[in-house]
Amino acid sequence: MPGVALSGGLPTPHPRKGFKTLPVEDAVGRMLAHDITEIRQGEFKGRAFKKGHVITVGDIEHLKRLGKNNIYLLEIDDDSMHENDAAFALAHSLVGSGVEIEGQPSEGKLNLLAAHNGLLKIDKDALYRFNLVGEVMCATLHTNTVVTRGQTVGGVRAIPLVVKKDVVQRAVSAAKDANGCLQVREIRKARAGVVITGSEVYTGKIEDKFLPVVQTKIARFEGEVIGSHLAPDDAAFIVQRLRGLIEAGADLLIITGGLSVDPDDVTRFAVKMLGATEIHYGAAVLPGSMFLVAYMEGTAGATIPILCIPACGMYHGITVFDLVLPRILAGDHIGRGELAEMGHGGLCMQCKECHYPICPFGK
């Protein structure tokens, strides 16, 4: 059965902007502005000619069999851009440190890749303003996603085949205002010091199961636990152990347990006694609402973050600690505002089989 085109070949009474219509015989040597689909009943359905194909004399009869007596040809005015040229301009305006453009554009689309392992940061306001322009788009992974080198972190596209230059420029300006709408920050390798609190653990009445959990999570980011101690429910004792860890070179302190309202839970008091200059207790996340983050001045003016994990960190595979740790290691300052912002998406669904981070938690 002869091929039939999806649409007829009659000239349109209202030519589309950026296109010119020519009889197929006069279109030899010109470039197709769109794909042409062919259907042969029971045999084939698909693309007969790809957008961008240069028409040859040998194509004329095939095109006519598809009902294409007239052909749309691309015609770009001085105030317009081809989709691929627009995609390049858009992509370059979006990428910041740690993000690179993959290859050449295809049909107005380019992928944006992580140039190295790290934490993806998206300027959500700038991305919104970029997409608000219309006729162009950029879709990304969630901000604060841990990514690996070569991973696709975003895709940008010029939607129509021909885009007005002023549209592209408005979108470019929105992205450039952010000095890189997409960035991937390096995650430093922590030298963590850990204090496991609880008199019942310190005296050996129960076995500590917290340290292996913390070690695994630190090792995920190529860090190490340089020292760990068990401590009773005694603030002065905890402080002593923490100071020893700082002297040993710890640049991150982690304390487990002792964060409820029980009179024996003294972790918060120990952090204050240690000399923390900033303390934030409570996070809008479940599990992990009793989480505490604090900061203190270390040697040579370096700031040492202190992360205090409530008991849920031992029983739940993923908690607020998993959301905060990579951000701290990537240089984020987690304060009251950041802990409050986590409430949107901060409810774990307690799935029978955990697929984190491929899930809504923390997004």
TrEMBL record:
All copies of the MoaB/Mog domain together span: 193-330
Task: Give the record's pathway.
Answer: Cofactor biosynthesis; molybdopterin biosynthesis
Keywords (A to Z) from UniProt: Magnesium, Metal-binding, Molybdenum, Molybdenum cofactor biosynthesis, Transferase
Instruction: Show the catalytic activity.
Output: adenylyl-molybdopterin + molybdate = Mo-molybdopterin + AMP + H(+)
Q: Does the keyword Magnesium apply?
A: yes
Q: Per the UniProt record, which EC number(s) apply here?
A: 2.10.1.1
Q: Which SUPFAM superfamilies match?
A: Molybdenum cofactor biosynthesis proteins
Q: Which CDD domains match?
A: MoeA_like
InterPro entries assigned to the protein according to its UniProt record, in alphabetical order: MoaB/Mog-like_dom_sf, MoaB/Mog_dom, MoeA-like
Q: Which Pfam families match?
A: MoCF_biosynth
Gene3D superfamilies listed in its UniProt record: MoaB/Mog-like domain
Magnesium as UniProt keyword: yes
Q: Which cofactor does it need?
A: Mg(2+)
Question: Which protein family is it in?
Answer: Belongs to the MoeA family.
According to its UniProt entry, what is the function of this protein? Catalyzes the insertion of molybdate into adenylated molybdopterin with the concomitant release of AMP.
Q: Fetch the PANTHER family from UniProt.
A: MOLYBDOPTERIN BIOSYNTHESIS PROTEIN, MOLYBDOPTERIN MOLYBDENUMTRANSFERASE
Q: Specify the protein name.
A: Molybdopterin molybdenumtransferase
